[in-house]
Specification:
mainly beta; seven-stranded mixed β-sheet; 0% helix
Length: 118
């Protein structure tokens, strides 16, 4: 089994910054793509950013130029640096990882709240 534990959410004013962290633990033989999704009230969960094992990144258009995703393979961790935050970034942010334990499976963190006040 694989567990993902997130940290770093909170309340920030518009224009501010936050850094989310997510560490994977458990019976991990290999980690594939890791990323962050978010879900705002009344909306579907959407991809924010993802990073492949080799470092290739992908961002939602709404966060390009403001958010930066990175990973530390030695620590089985992924990070999301969020700058120039906007009220519309308010959501629960979920860490995601594709990992090989007894086969390739998708894993999710418990979610961390990010609230941006205007």
């Amino acid at each position: 089994q694989v567990q993902l534990v997130e940290s770093g959410g909170g309340l920030v004013q518009a224009g501010g910054s936050l850094r989310l962290s997510c560490a994977a633990s458990g019976s991990i033989f290999s980690l594939g793509v890791m990323g962050w999704y978010r879900q705002a009230p009344g909306k579907e969960r959407e991809l924010v950013a993802a990073v492949a094992n080799a470092g290739t990144t992908n961002y939602a258009d709404s966060v390009k130029g403001r958010f930066t995703i990175s990973r530390d393979n030695a620590k089985n961790s992924v990070y999301l640096q969020m700058n120039s935050l906007k009220p519309e970034d308010t959501a629960v942010y979920y860490c995601y990882a594709k990992a090989w334990a007894s086969g390739w499976s998708d894993y999710w963190g418990q979610g961390t709240q990010v609230t941006v006040s205007s």
